[in-house]
Model the fold of this input.
Amino acid sequence: MHLRGATALVTGANRDLGRHFAEELLRRGAAKVYAAARRPELVDLPGVEALPLDVTDPASVEAAAAVAGDATLLINNAGVSHGVNLVDGDLAKIRATLDVHLYGTLAMIRAFAPVLGANGGGAILNVLSNLSWLSYDGNNAYAVAKAAEWSLTNGVRLELAGQGTLVSGLVFGPTATETMRAHAGDAVMNDPADIVRAALDGIETGTVEIIADRFGADAKAALSGEPRGFVLETLSRT
Ligand SMILES: NC(=O)c1ccc[n+]([C@@H]2O[C@H](COP(=O)([O-])OP(=O)(O)OC[C@H]3O[C@@H](n4cnc5c(N)ncnc54)[C@H](OP(=O)(O)O)[C@@H]3O)[C@@H](O)[C@H]2O)c1
Done:
């Protein structure tokens, strides 16, 4: 898909990876970028159209689809990470994690599939994780949500093939955003700008599974062996 002239909507675009996506899309010549955010007043990037959106609120999702009827690219970036395990973690937090990553992404896709179809097919990029393929003791609810989002990505790809919509997943590991810095301190992590460039290169070349770093590649390779977990503490420190 050509990004020059595209009309993109990025969820969670007020900060971190979402803001980087919006910025890079403008740099690549997108005609319009809807920077969707729970608090659109926090969108500070010149040249984008701020749009209110909470992906867990069906009315909010429907309202966004009504406004962004010209969208040709949907980037499901919004995410939460509550740091909860499955056996003894707060069940409300486990559900909240699935609400954003699984049901929120699904709600956006259901609302925007007809929009993309009417606009010639377009593309959907779901921002997944190396934890789509690895467990992570301490944040296993997030790993479950990202695994579900990976399967959702693959299912939706089949369902939307007929209308010509490219459905891609982006797989990568620890990246220096506000949330990850709070979690991982001074660990050496990806630069968010590098991940976003790799992701948009993948959309431009029609890649369905975009593996943007060595963490993604390692997790994919590990699938052929015994299931294992990711250990953040093994990252090197600055
Ligand atoms: N950073 C990493 O190491 C890493 C690695 C692999 C995958 N990922 C994935 O990459 C994506 C972005 O990560 P990030 O590190 O940039 O996250 P982040 O810094 O925590 O930012 C998350 C964004 O999602 C928004 N958001 C949360 N819940 C939402 C909702 N219900 N509706 C709409 N927006 C909502 C947040 O809005 P508020 O500002 O209102 O909270 C914020 O804009 C996520 O899907 C994450 O799982 C991240």
Observations:
- The pocket of NAP is lined by residues 11-12, 14-18, 37-39, 53-56, 77-80, 100, 104, 127, 129, 172-175, 177-180 (CB under 6 Å).
- The chain has a mean pLDDT of 97.
- The beta strands are 7-11, 32-37, 49-52, 73-76, 123-127, 166-171, 209-211.
- The helical segments are 16-27, 58-67, 91-118, 140-160, 178-184, 192-205, 214-222.
